[in-house]
């Protein structure tokens, strides 16, 4: 027999402890996903509904939640009611799995009444409380040492520093990228106009571009120009003309090699999300 | 629930003050056909005994925690540490002279006992077969455990469920 308890993390400048909230209850149903639905995190990937992102070797990452090391409920004090509005996230220990939910001010309900259709209908009242989501924001599978989640931005306040995984290119980096030899910028479009989504892509593919040798780079440029007729390509200077966000996006898709031809039906396609198959 | 239980435990732990005080003033109690002198001490002692059993019965209503031997790095048997404190109560009862003094002294002791983290300590638990241990977790927290089991080293602890009396004390039934 194993006890499922619910805990809360307080966010005060002088108190960042974990407190025990509720005894002998679960927050969420046990996560039931097949291994193939756990996709290694990639900031531009679009998840299928039943899928989750995964981060392997979570306990050795810099953004690992240190409180989970040797976690033991007897180290935690019982939460005082007065501190309920200081809770930043709650989690339940369910066997060797930890289910997290972030608490935002929108999740706190104050003085609400509703009619409960139990055996007999009756009015229920809540003075102050949290609502519980249908799905956890993150799950830590301790035995596999894997963190599982859907939206990284949502959990960045729980796992401090995890946002390095979805970081956007800085102004400086964007500028350097747009000055690459294969890009010719058309005024007035410049690094200041590059929005969040493209900045994420730049942060991701910049490194790849720098690591390719000259030969491969040439090949990649030919590949993009062939698949993207809408992208104006200057054959002489071997430069793409970029004048808006859409063109930059298409170019970045090209760098990611997201254009392909289907094998059987010979159809040309563009993928807005990809996944490596092993 | 928790507050009521703690008030009850405190009452339980301090009840012996009254038992000793009344035994000292046994002449004031009804003499029960001349046998009072011999019967009253036994009758009075039944109360702390009974209340201790009741408190053990309601313990499962408290918050539960799981303790694993993996979590514990240090274990110490503590019965002897508590007993001297308790003997102090006996001397108080024996030296207070009047009833209204006793009520006042008891009130203060109740308050002290309730405010301290030792509300649970009641030698009746020892009589019923419970033992007191202090445990230290990997993170360095020291807690008290009241248990019927005989532990000598952390390895003797298997996975078990304990009930949280307060943030420093757990009871295993």
Describe this structure in words.
The complex is a heterodimer of chains A (278) and B (173). Chain A is of the alpha+beta class and 278 residues long. Chain A is built from five helices and 16 strands. In chain A, the strands form four sheets. In chain A, strands 3-4-11-10-7-6-1-2-5 form a nine-stranded mixed β-sheet. Chain A has a three-stranded mixed β-sheet with strand order 12-14-13, with helices on one face. In chain A, strands 8-9 form a two-stranded antiparallel sheet. Chain B has 173 residues and is an alpha+beta fold. Chain B contains five helices and six strands; from the N terminus they run ααββαααββββ. In chain B, strands 1-5-6-4-3-2 form a six-stranded mixed β-sheet, with helices on one face. The longest helix of chain B has 23 residues. Chain B starts with a helix and ends with a strand. The interface between A and B is medium-sized, with 14 and 21 residues.
Distance between the termini of chain B: 19 Å
Mean pLDDT of chain B, to the nearest integer, reads: 86
The oligomeric state is heterodimer
Q: What characteristic shape of chain A results from the CA principal axes?
A: elongated
Main sheet of chain B: which strands, in order across?
1-5-6-4-3-2
Largest sheet of chain A: 9 strands, mixed
Helicity of chain A, as a percent range: 10-25%
Low-pLDDT segments of chain A: none
- Poorly predicted ranges of chain B (pLDDT <50, ≥5 residues)? none
């Amino acid at each position: 027999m194993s006890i499922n308890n619910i805990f809360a993390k307080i966010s005060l400048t002088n108190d960042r402890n974990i407190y025990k909230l509720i005894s002998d209850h679960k927050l969420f149903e046990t996560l039931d996903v097949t291994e193939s639905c756990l996709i290694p995190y990639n900031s531009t990937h679009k998840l299928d509904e039943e899928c989750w992102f995964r981060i392997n070797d979570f306990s050795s990452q810099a953004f690992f939640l240190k409180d989970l090391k040797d976690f033991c409920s007897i180290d935690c004090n019982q939460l005082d009611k007065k501190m309920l509005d200081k809770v930043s996230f709650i989690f339940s220990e369910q066997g060797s799995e930890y289910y997290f939910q972030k608490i935002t001010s929108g999740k706190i309900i104050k003085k609400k009444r509703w009619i409960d259709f139990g055996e007999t209908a009756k009015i229920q009242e809540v003075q102050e409380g949290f609502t519980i989501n249908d799905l956890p924001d993150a799950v830590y599978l301790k035995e596999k040492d894997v963190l599982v989640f859907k939206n990284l931005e949502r959990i960045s306040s729980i796992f401090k520093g995890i946002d390095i995984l979805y970081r956007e290119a800085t102004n400086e980096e964007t500028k350097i990228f747009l000055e690459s030899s294969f890009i010719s910028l058309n005024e007035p479009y410049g690094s200041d106009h590059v929005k969040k989504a493209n900045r994420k892509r730049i942060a991701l593919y910049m490194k790849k571009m720098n690591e390719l040798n000259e030969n491969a780079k040439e090949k990649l440029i030919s590949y993009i120009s062939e698949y993207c007729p809408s992208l104006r390509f200057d054959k002489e200077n071997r430069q793409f003309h970029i004048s808006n966000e859409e063109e930059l996006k298409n170019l970045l898709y090209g760098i990611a090699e997201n254009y392909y031809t289907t094998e059987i039906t010979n159809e040309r396609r563009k993928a807005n999300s990809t996944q490596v198959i092993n | 629930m928790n507050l009521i239980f703690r008030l009850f435990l405190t009452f339980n732990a301090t009840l012996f003050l009254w038992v000793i005080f009344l035994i000292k003033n046994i002449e004031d109690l009804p003499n029960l056909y001349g046998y009072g002198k011999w019967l009253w001490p036994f009758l009075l002692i039944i109360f702390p005994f009974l209340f201790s059993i009741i408190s053990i019965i309601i313990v499962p209503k408290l918050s539960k925690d799981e303790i694993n031997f993996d979590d514990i790095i240090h274990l110490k048997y503590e019965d002897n540490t508590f007993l001297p404190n308790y003997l102090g109560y006996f001397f108080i009862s024996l030296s207070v002279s009047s009833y209204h003094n006793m009520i006042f002294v008891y009130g203060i002791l109740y308050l002290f006992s309730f405010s301290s983290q030792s509300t649970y300590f009641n030698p009746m638990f020892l009589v019923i077969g419970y033992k007191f241990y202090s445990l230290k977790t990997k993170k360095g927290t020291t807690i008290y455990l009241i248990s019927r089991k005989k532990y000598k080293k952390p390895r003797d602890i298997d996975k078990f469920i304990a009930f949280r009396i307060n943030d420093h004390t757990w009871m295993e039934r």
